[in-house]
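batch job 7 of whatever, protein = Ankyrin repeat domain-containing protein
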Amino acid sequence: MNSLPEALLHAARIGDITLLETVLAQKPDINTQDSRGFTPLVLACYNGNLESVQLLLKAGADVNIPDFSGNTALMGVCFKGYAPIAGLLITHGADLNLQHSNGGTALMFATLFGRNDLVKLMLDHGADTSIRESRGLTALDLAYQQGNEQAIELLQRV
């Protein structure tokens, strides 16, 4: 590791709690971004490192900073299916309705990838079902497109 930001990103990516605590004690820029725009929080979330996510949030990580494609930590966990991390992000102020470069939202990711526990979680916390992505499709349209019967049922209740 040549620098504190690199060490922070590395520790978050691999979920090395001891290294992460050591680096955080040196007060680095908690929201530093790598060449793709990934923050330590995005990396920890995408890799399912719940304890790392907790440490980063406690240290003040911004839950809504997108990568350079517009994907947020919440979008990543909805894609991957990490409901406990999604709940934690929501508790810490994650914006459920942010859109990435193609207009997709966390709810749309959950719908597309059959993460129906996350579809329910997003809806329970007020995700906007009227948002349309770049092709004009809503989460409900995507659920129909994917044949995701459970998501269709959840989305029609709203």
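notes: The mean pLDDT is 97.
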